[in-house]
Each structure stands twice: as structure tokens, then as C-alpha cells.
Write a sequence for this structure.
């Protein structure tokens, strides 16, 4: 089992790609670990509900492409 990093903070201005980076890092960590429940130990926080919905959509779309 590969331990997940304790904490990573991304701080950037609007339109700089934070959502893209969060999705990329979430998927990278998820696919890197051998723990099938690792997603339960990850927390991604963003400022707006719109960004949350976009993150969820991008994560699901990427996972569908992998399957």
C-alpha cells in the first residue's frame, strides 16, 4: 500500500487551471495507489459549486475513458 501525501495546497488566480490540476492530481494519486478505498481518503476543496461540479464531471469522464 502506497501512503498518500499528507497535504497539498494549490493557490492560483481565476482561470489559471486549478480545476484541471486538482483533477489531474486526484486521478494520479488514485491510480498510483494499490488501496481500492484510497478515494475515501482524498479531499479536494475548491471555492465554487460550479468548480466542484466541473471537477466531478471531469473525474468521471476520465475514469470512463480508462474503463
Amino acid at each position: 500500500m502506497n501512503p498518500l501525501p499528507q497535504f497539498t495546497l494549490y493557490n492560483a488566480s481565476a482561470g489559471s487551471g486549478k480545476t484541471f490540476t486538482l483533477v489531474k492530481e486526484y486521478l494520479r494519486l488514485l491510480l498510483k495507489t494499490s488501496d481500492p478505498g484510497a478515494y475515501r481518503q482524498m479531499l479536494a476543496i475548491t471555492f465554487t459549486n460550479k468548480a466542484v461540479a466541473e471537477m466531478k464531471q471531469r473525474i468521471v469522464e476520465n475514469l470512463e475513458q480508462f474503463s
Notes: Residues 22 and 31 are 14 Å apart (CA to CA). The mean pLDDT is 85. The radius of gyration is 12 Å.
